[in-house]
Predict the 3D structure of the following.
Amino acid sequence: MTGLRVENLSYAYGARQALDGVGFRVEPGTFCALLGPNGAGKSTLFALLTRLFTAPQGKIEVAGHDMARAPRKALRQMGVVFQQPTLDLDLTVQRNLSYFAALHGLRGARAQARIEAALERLEMRGRLGERVRDLNGGHRRRLEIARSLIHHPKVLLLDEPTVGLDAATRHAITVHVHDLSRRKRLTVLWATHLTDEVEDADQLLILHRGKLAQDGTARQLRGGLGLADHFLRLTGQAA
Ligand SMILES: Nc1ncnc2c1ncn2[C@@H]1O[C@H](COP(=O)(O)OP(=O)(O)OP(=O)(O)O)[C@@H](O)[C@H]1O
C-alpha cells in the first residue's frame, strides 16, 4: 500500500471525544477532500496523522510505513502544510527553503535543484531572492506548498490551506494541488470546510462530530444535489 491508510483512530480531550473510530484509505494520485464543519475533528485528525499527537489506538500507514512502528520512515514520506503559516518572514524565499532542505539532509546543488523545481511547479521561481514578508498571502501559501514538496513526499497533507485568501487565489491554489496529485501521483489529503474546493472526481470524506459520516467520490455522495446542499443536509450546518 503506497498511499495513506488510517484504521480505527480515536482521540479524546479529557471527556470530550474529538474523533471516534475513524478509518479510510487514499490511493496514490488521488486528491481526497476532508470536509467537516467547525469542531468536526479535522485538526485533531491532522495532529494524529503528523504525529503532533500520538494515536492512543488504531493505525496510520504512510506510503506503507506504520506511524507507530516506523515513525521516521512514515514522516519522511509526508509533506505537510499546516493551517497556521510557519515561514520565517524575515528570510528570503531561498533561505526558507534551504533551511527546510537541510533539515531533510539535502545540501548544495542537489538541494538547489529540488528548491528550484518545487518553486517552478508553483510558478514561484522568479521570487527566490524576495523576502517572505514582501510576498502576498497567496504567494506565501504557494511557498509553503513548494516547501512541503522538496523532500519528494508521497503523501501531502494540507489543513485548510486557503484560509484567509481571496476567491481567485483560493481557486488557483486548489487547481494547482489537484494538478500535482494527478501529474506526480501524489496522495493528497486536503482538509476544508469549503465545498467549492472539491471537484466531482475527488474522493470525499465527510467528518461530522468526530465520526466519518461518508466516504466516496464527491459525485457519488452528492447525488443530484449541489455539494453544499448535500453537506448541509447531512450535517445540519452550512459549508
Ligand atoms: N485542546 C483541546 N481541548 C479540549 N477540546 C478540544 C481541544 N481541541 C479541540 N477540542 C474539541 O475537539 C473537537 C474537534 O476539534 P477540532 O479542532 O479537531 O475540529 P476541526 O474540525 O478542526 O474544527 P475547525 O474547523 O473549527 O478547525 C471540538 O469539539 C473541539 O472543541
Notes: The chain has eight helices and ten strands. The radius of gyration is 18 Å. Helices lie at 42-49, 71-76, 93-103, 108-121, 137-149, 167-183, 218-222, 227-235.
